Amino acid sequence: MTNSHHSLYDTLLRYMPQGYVEFKVIYDDASEPVDYEFFEVNPAFEKIMKGKRKHFIGKKVSSALKDFEYSEREWMIQVARVVSDGGTVTFEHYSRRNKCWFEMSVFSQRTGFVSVMFHDITPHVQENNALKQLVNVSHRFVSTGSDLLMNQQFLDQIRDFTGAKAVALNLMEEDGESYTTVALSGMDEMLEKSLDILGFHPVGRKWPMTDQRRDLFKQSNPLVFDGIDPLIDGALPKRLVKNLLRIFSLGEVVLFKIEQDGVLYGDLTIVMEQGKQANRLGLVELYLVHVLQQLTKADHQVGETKKSMFDGFGTLDLECIMAFNTRQVLHLNETWERVLGFSLDELENIDFLSLIHPDDEVITEAGFAELEERGELFRFVNRFRTIDDTYRSIEWHCKLQEGYIYAIAKDVTDRVQLEEKLADRDRLLTKLSDQIPGAIYQFELLPDGSFNFPFFSRGFEDMLGISAEEVQTDASLVFRRMHPDDYPLVMQSIDESYRNLTIWDAEFRLLTKDGRTIWILGSSRPEKIAEDHVLWHGYIGDVTEKKTYEKEIEYLSYHDQLTGIKNRRYFEEALERYDDEHFYPLTLIVIDINGLKLTNDAFGHLVGDQLLVEAANILRNKLRTKDEVARVGGDEFVVISPNTTLDEAKQLSDRLGRLFHEQTVEGLPISASFGEAVKYDSNVELAEVFNLAEDRMYHHKVSEKQSRRHHSIQIIMRTLYEKIPREEAHSQRVANLAGKLAEAMGFTSAEVNEIRTAAILHDIGKVAISNEILDKPGTLTESEWYEIKRHPEISYNILSTVPEYVALSEIVLAHHERWDGKGYPKGLQDFEIPLASRIIAIADTFDVMVTGRPYRQAKTIDEALAIIKQEAGKQFDPSLVDVFFEKVVPTLQQ
Q: What are the angstrom distances between the C-alpha of 631 and each of 105, 563, 572, 607, 612?
């Protein structure tokens, strides 16, 4: 490398944002990589590993990585594979040390060295997870409802001045047998983690009022505990409590009862960080006075309402009792004076109904008729004259009982005037609502159980294929379109929203008019019109495409794309789930499929993929029901076996090994190396168990590697002969000719045998070339010739995997090189070509000419010899041609 190029190289390494490290490979006596020495690192790598350059350069990985997290050792496994198998490996890796995702590229630029690049892809991964997070946020909002929004600021203030980790507000249910967590401060830090990590939703959750908790509440305020255990009392699984304590470092708990006159309304629970005490608890008690005032005020209002015979209407303004037949007013409350300006005496001495606007007399009579028929009248509006001759709009809610009208009303003049002013805008909004994707609607459920859709936009019609007129006639048509499996859940969610006045949110399937099934996402907010009368305002949209995408994303995120079994991400999450005493002893079996690179080189990557698929099928179908399996690397699988001893795991490994060997791909039996390790209790980290299983697998792999690969070569040769029968005879003839020429050159018997063996194996790479090309009778195309010319390199790749064949692989690689440098694959010339390769080249070419090929007619021996002589100094070593004619050709003529 020139100085200018070296300077540019250094500059790139120094300023590139990706981390870069180059290792020098350390080999043992058997030429196997045993360790790696840091040779070069760039500043970005120092930043990633949080260490200085001097701490790495010249150090061995085996010692340098002792201080690293387990996750940093994971990518070193990929380094070892590149050194062993060659090529480039790119994969995603999560670093627990850095709390971020990297895209790792492992490759070798020069012999004896291997490089690794780190590219931070955390933003990309976070973007891919955005949809899942959005669903969590939506679910959390629906679960908490309005109570959280009403009480959040109050709890935030308490958390702020007490220094608490979290503050929760719990309110008793009417039955006194349970209580509900209605709000939680500290949501950003705690609830988000509990949702994502533990699947635990505290807000909106109802808890049983246990005897232990009742006993605790007999004590005086405040109640102070060392931890949350006294408050749990079996309400949560022990494993969940253990994880909560471990993740959030929870400490002292201070509990204030919200109680007055012997009535328990709930409690305020303050949770501190471990090692800290709460501040300003006296101020908390003052805040509770405010809470009690609000709660007792609500109770007081309900009591007044019942005494006034207006059950369910206590929050409205105007009261009126009227005889139905005579229309005589029997009672008005004082609020009417403020609304109409007349005194109560004046209102009682005039005809009350004479104050109705003349234009509203007809609708008022119609209202009386509806009230007589139904016994109830809701949301009826007419106008009444005031003392200054203006008119106020009054909205009525009426019940007819035993000849008397009991009515509650409110002044809605401002609302009506606003509605009139916005009439044009409403028409515009209606037009817009008809144009947006999805549909806007109102759904009404009446006290008698009947329902209807007061409004829905055109998108509703387009989606369902049902017109507004049809729905107005029979609203149940909408529900008949629901998928039968989803209908019960939708009705249950509507009932829950109806009873609790919580936001309705559901995802369900609809059957369209043309027979399609679509996914619908619906959401609406309920409005209580009167007792047992609720109106929802909402939106629905077609989310079929999104649902399909979600399912694909969910499947791909936890499944290996090639084999269909679970992937590494699932495996890592499953480890956390299984790391529990309930599953001990917990066994991990690491399985590495042997010879994948050899299979790829010999038969192509499609066959290599098939090898992995067949192995995965055996694991999927033959494991026990309780076992889980995942593909965690290119050729590596892991089995998680709960409640399994080491002996049982070894028996399972033996059984799987036999099943693998019985299954062949392209004549090759599936071979695998196994390693088992067991976790018996919580004293050992599961990461250490995985490392031990992997170490045992590698030990078995190394001890079996030589005999296995030698056997694989024999199987590949047998496969080649079955695929191309003429190759067996061709190989033998070339070996005989090459042996004779080697003997004529004065080679030793050992050297002659080596050349004969190389000649036997010289075309082993043709096993990866299709028969359509090898047996094509016509002229080969340029692309077909390119495939033919690949076979020396394929032969080299296959043979070089077996140490005793490494020397032969070099001979085979060069047997199509030419003396004049115009051969392939490297374009070597004259003495750059190994002597054994030059000998085999003459024998191979001669035999091909005299026996012919599908695309070339056979020549006579004399014609072939003439070409050999003609090519001396061009294709062939001229001195070898001389010896060939002098000592080998006479034996042919005999």
A: 19, 8, 11, 18, 10
According to DSSP, residue 475 is labeled T
Q: Are strands 19-27 and 113-120 parallel, antiparallel or unpaired?
A: antiparallel
Residues 609-624: what's their mean pLDDT? 89
Query: Is there a contact between 661 and 669 (Cβ–Cβ < 8 Å)?
Result: yes
Q: What is the pLDDT of residues 89-111, one digit of tens each?
A: 777 777 766 677 788 888 887 78
Q: Helices (DSSP H) in 217-343: which residue ranges?
A: 229-232, 238-248, 281-307, 335-340
Contact 363, 393 (CB under 8 A): no
Name, in order, each residue with C-beta under 8 angstroms of 554's C-beta and a sequence gap of 6 or more.
none
Residue 326 dihedral angles phi and psi, to the nearest 5°? -90, -10
Residue 23 DSSP SS3: strand
Q: How far apart are CA 875 and CA 878, in angstroms?
A: 9
Q: What tokens appear for 712 in the block?
A: 């694989």
One-letter amino acid of 103 = E
pLDDT tens figures, 690-734: 999 888 888 887 666 555 566 677 777 887 777 788 888 888 898
Cβ atoms of residues 230 and 254 within 8 Å: no
Q: Which helix or strand (DSSP H or E) is residue 432 part of? A: helix 423-435
If you average pLDDT over residues 811-838, what whole number do you get? Answer: 92
CA neighbor of 472 nearest in space, from 454, 460, 458: 454
Query: Which is it for the CA torsion 209, 210, 211, 217, positive or negative?
Result: negative
Look at 296 and 455; give whichever has higher pLDDT. Answer: 455
Asked whether residue 290 carries a pLDDT value surpassing 80, the answer given is no
Contact 415, 512 (CB under 8 A): no
Mean per-residue pLDDT over the chain, rounded: 79
Highest mean pLDDT, choosing among 85-94, 141-150, 702-711, 865-874: 865-874
Phi/psi of residue 526, each to 5°? -80, 150
- Beta carbons of 188 and 140 less than 8 angstroms apart: no
Dist. CA 786–CA 792, nearest whole Å: 12
Strands (E), 594-724: 628-631, 636-641, 664-665, 668-669, 672-679
**Cβ of 662: how many Cβ atoms within 10 Å?**
10
* Of 720, 696, 680, 595, the residue nearest 638 (C-alpha): 696
At position 625, the amino acid (one-letter code) is: T
Report the distance separating Cα 504 and Cα 490, nearest Å: 9
DSSP letter at 581? G
* Length in residues, the chain: 894
Residues 100-108: contacts with CB within 8 Å, 24+ apart? 101/125, 102/19, 102/48, 104/75, 104/78, 106/75, 106/78, 106/79, 106/81, 106/82, 107/82, 108/82, 108/83
Is the C-alpha dihedral spanning 687, 690, 692, 694 positive or negative?
Answer: negative
What order do you get walking across the sheet with 517-530 strand by strand?
451-456, 439-445, 533-542, 517-530, 504-511
Q: How many CB atoms lie within 10 A of CB 584?
A: 17
Question: Distance of alpha carbon 175 from its chain centroid, rounded?
Answer: 42
Q: For residue 459, how many other CB atoms are within 10 A of its CB?
A: 21
